[in-house]
Specification:
about 180 residues; 5 helices; alpha/beta
Length: about 180
């Protein structure tokens, strides 16, 4: 199965998970995140801001800020096909941006060097048993991960319905270190 077909199949499955089940899954994943040793020991954490049917990261991001972690969120530079990180001090600094994903308001963009990151919480539509992922097709995370000086632990975040035995791979695909799921 090619990436587009697999992505569409999984997105349809995610769309059909009922709200109560999704809420229970999100609570379970949140609890795993806040008790994860890599996250507990990290000072600088990048986390995607969830939207649509993704695992909810809003509560987790607020938890990190409240617990004095340095939180960074991705910012898409569509013109240059690149992803940067911006330090987030409060959830109130966000507004709807590229792809309808919450991003910092212009006055709160604080671009930082990604090499400071200890952990990167990574989205994906599909993950496989070898920790490879299929995202939304932009290639932003693989390009970001290709930075040779990036030494952060890459953690994939998904529901168990998003894990498959094997995803189609390209030469430039970079796996996450491990996956946290329900």
């Amino acid at each position: 199965m090619d990436k587009v077909t697999l992505r569409n199949k999984i997105l349809k499955i995610l769309n059909n998970i009922d709200t109560d089940a999704k809420n229970n899954k999100n609570i379970e994943i949140y609890n795993k995140l806040i008790s994860n040793e890599d996250i507990i020991n990290a000072e600088n954490i990048m986390c995607f801001v969830s939207f649509k049917d993704e695992v909810d990261t809003h509560k987790f991001i607020k938890y990190l800020i409240k617990n004095n972690k340095n939180v960074y969120i991705p910012i898409i530079d569509n013109k240059n096909k690149a992803m940067h990180i911006s330090k987030l001090n409060s959830f109130d600094e966000l507004e709807t941006g590229f792809y309808n994903i919450l991003e910092p308001k212009k006055e709160y963009v604080r671009i930082c060097n990604p090499e400071i990151l200890d952990v990167i919480i990574t989205p994906g539509v599909v993950f496989d048993k070898d920790n490879y992922r299929v995202g939304y097709g932009g290639g932003y995370y693989d390009k970001f991960f290709s930075n040779k000086n990036l030494d952060a632990k890459k953690i994939g975040l998904c529901y168990k319905e998003q894990i498959t035995p094997k995803v189609p791979r390209e030469d430039f695909d970079i796996p996450v270190d491990y996956i946290i799921s329900d």
